[in-house]
Amino acid sequence: MNKSGLFIAGTWQEGGEALEVRNKFSDALLAQVGMATKEDVARAVGDAAAFAPVLADTPLHRRSGWLRKTSELLLTHKEDLARTIAGEAGKALKYSLLEVDRAASTFDLAADEARRIHGETVPLDAVASGEGYFGFWVRRPLGVVAAITPFNFPLNLVAHKIAPALAAGNPIVLKPAEQTPLTAIKLFEILLEAGVPDRAIQLVQGLGEVAGEALVSDPRVAKISFTGSRAVGDRITRAAGIKKVTLELGNASPVIIAPDADLDYVAKRCAVGAFYNSGQVCVSVQRIYADRKVSEEFNARFVDAAEALKVGDPLKPDTDVGPMIEPSACARVGAWVDEARNAGARVLTGGKREGNVYYPTVLAGVKPEMKVMAQEVFGPVAGVQTCDSFAEALAAANATDYGLQAAVFTQDIDRVLRAVKSLDFGGVIVNDFPGFRADHMPYGGNKQSGLGREGLRFAIEDMTNIQMVVIKQR
């Protein structure tokens, strides 16, 4: 594996200051990679901009072929990629393997969508001034796409930037999370093996305040696609200037449990949704609103489901919950749980830390103003609040600045329709946890949870411009 860290202008490069990559469970040193300077980023963007016309003229079937081959190669290297993710991100191996499968599917879907990029005719003579004119529009590539991705899905969220960019005919400059650079390096090696032109993809490892700032503020960048925190998303919009921007930001995902829900099923699904990847998922189960008629029984079953999860080394095949990404994140989660406990919340299970592992934690007696309910925990913590009615639960779920995805468990179609109409979220998941995502569906948030939508077709549309063509008939 190439540990250079930077891939600029078709060559692997060492970069500047070394970035240490450590196993998040054992703290063993995995690798050192060079970080990009602002000058490195400028060179990467410049080379991508120079190559943009070539890529834009590349036939759709060739772009599709690169993406299909990448999908195949990801599955060929599945075990190695999954172990890399588990080591550098701390994600349990069983979920790391699933991430590779999803990334392969993402590239495969993009290969299909690349062949479907098209325009439409416009009946200009629908108005008097359009008589004698023929019109149609086509989609044209934007130019350089800048992608900044988080640590929690170091392969599939990178795939959701690179695959649609290449399908649309745009070169891309990627800055992955500094905690998880090795997966991105492996992906770039696979992309090159799949036949992607070496100047169509540029990799700039590094810190957000150096590489990230230089990337988003470069005027040669036409489009920014960012997944991360709301605070950083706000900084990007201020620094970007006039560019297209897609932001996938945070959430404090609500789950509503109606009295007719299958509590055993709900408890098990909420345990997975709250604690896989140590809760470090923007659509992780966090705020649970249970009807008073079933809240006590749900709490008992939820605790049982949480305690049944195996916690430990993510590289062991039976581990469900591994470490958090860094000690400071683990300490912050602990502080928020302690704050809630001191304010009257009850810790039904968990609430403890061993090394970089924070145990799955269920809180009852929570209040809306507690940080564990009001802000994004991004850790293995879920709070249960009792509600006296479905309407009260809907109102409580909506009482947030976030709006990515929400979940409702009920067998009543009337409740389902009321929830869909009432909930101000980009996605409403019925009878499963809010983290459900099929990689071709439109995915994105309302309010402070972001701008735009991902999902291959939708990302490709946002990575192209509509060009109108008008022909005067003579």
Looking at CATH, which topology of the largest domain would you report?
Answer: Aldehyde Dehydrogenase, Chain A, domain 1
Q: State the distance separating the first and last CA atoms.
A: 62 Å
Instruction: Give the low-confidence spans.
Output: none
Strand order of the largest sheet: 2-1-9-8-7-10-11-21
Global structural class: alpha/beta
Percent of sequence in beta strands: 15-25%
What's the domain count?
Answer: 2
Classify the helix fraction into a percent range.
25-40%
How many E strands? 22
Radius of gyration, CA atoms, in whole angstroms:
23 Å
Task: Give the CATH class of the largest domain.
Answer: Alpha Beta
On the 0 to 100 scale, the average pLDDT is 97
The profile of the biggest β sheet is: 8 strands, mixed
Shape from CA axes? globular
Can you give me a brief rundown of this structure?
The chain is an alpha/beta fold and 474 residues long. The chain has helices at 38-56, 60-76, 78-89, 93-114, 156-168, 181-193, 208-217, 230-240, 263-275, 295-307, 327-342, 371-374, 390-398, 413-422, 456-462, and strands at residues 6-8, 11-13, 18-22, 29-34, 120-122, 133-141, 144-148, 172-175, 201-204, 221-227, 244-248, 253-257, 285-291, 346-349, 353-354, 357-358, 361-364, 381-387, 405-409, 427-430, 450-451, 464-472.
Description:
The chain contains 15 helices and 22 strands. It has 474 residues and is of the alpha/beta class. The protein folds into 2 domains: 270 residues, Aldehyde Dehydrogenase, Chain A, domain 1, CATH 3.40.605.10; 178 residues, Aldehyde Dehydrogenase, Chain A, domain 2, CATH 3.40.309.10. It is 40% helix and 22% strand. The radius of gyration is 23 Å and the shape is globular. It has an 8-stranded mixed β-sheet, sandwiched between helices. The protein has a 7-stranded mixed β-sheet with strand order 14-17-18-13-12-19-20, with helices on both faces. It has a 3-stranded antiparallel β-sheet with strand order 5-6-22.
